[in-house]
Amino acid sequence: MPRRFHDAEELLPPATLTRRALSIIYDGLISIAVL
C-alpha cells in the first residue's frame, strides 16, 4: 500500500475521522445483520 495515500489522509484529519466512524458503523450494522 503506497504511503502517499496514507499521508494524504493524514493531511485531512476530519475526513479520516468521519471515514473511520462510518467504517465502524457499517461494520457494526453488517455484524448485526449477519446475526
Question: What features would you describe in this structure?
Answer:
The chain is mainly alpha-helical. The protein contains 2 helices and no strands. It has helices at residues 3-11, 13-34. The radius of gyration is 13 Å and the shape is rod-shaped. The protein starts with a helix and ends with a helix.
- The proportion of strand residues reads under 5%
According to DSSP, the number of beta strands is: 0
Helix-strand category: mainly alpha
Task: Name the average pLDDT.
Answer: 75
Residue stretches low in confidence (pLDDT < 50, at least 5 long) are: none
Helix count from the secondary structure assignment = 2
Write the layout of secondary structure elements.
Blueprint: H1 3-11, H2 13-34
State the main characteristics.
mainly alpha; 35 residues
What's a concise summary of this model?
With 35 residues, this protein is mainly alpha-helical. Helix content is 89%, strand content 0%.
